[in-house]
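Bench notes, afternoon.
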Amino acid sequence: MAHYCDTAPGHPWHGPYHEDEYGFPVADDTALFERFVLEINQAGLSWLTVLKKREAFRRAFDGFDVDRVAAFGDADRERLLGDAGIIRNRLKVEAAIHNAGVIQELRDEYDSFAGWLDHHHPLPLTDWVKLFRRTFRFTGPEIVGEFLMSTGYLPGAHRDDCPVHRRILACSPAWRSV
C-alpha cells in the first residue's frame, strides 16, 4: 500500500494538505475544531471527498466557530442536512454540534480545546480513544488517531524521509516531547 507521502505530492487537493497542514502542530481551537469535524465526516468516505467539500463545510459551520456551532438549533440542523455541499449525515451533524458544546465546557477547566489535549498528552492511542469516547460523540479509533496525528499529537503523519517531516520536527510537535 502506498504511503500518503508518495501519493499526495502534486495532487491538487491532497498535495496542499500534505505539504502545509497534515501533522503540523495545531493550537488554535477553531482550527482544531475544523479538523475534528472533518475527520468525523470522513468516516466511511475518502479524504478526497472531505477536502473537496471543505470550503462548503466552512460556510455551513460558520467558519468552525465553536460558540456559534454549539448554539445551532433545529433550523440549523435542517439547513445542514439540506446542504448538498457537505456530507449530510444526521449522526455526523449532531456530533459536530454536540462536540462544539463539549469544547465550550472544556474551556471552563482547561482554557481551550488545545489545553485539554495538552493536559492529557501523552497517551497511547488506545487511551486517547477511550478518553475521546467518554468526552465526545462519533469518535472511533480511526477518527481519533487521524485527528491526533494530523494535529501533531501523535507521530506517523509522514515518513521519516519525507521533506515535510523535517519541517514538522522544526515546529516541535507534541509527540516529540515524549
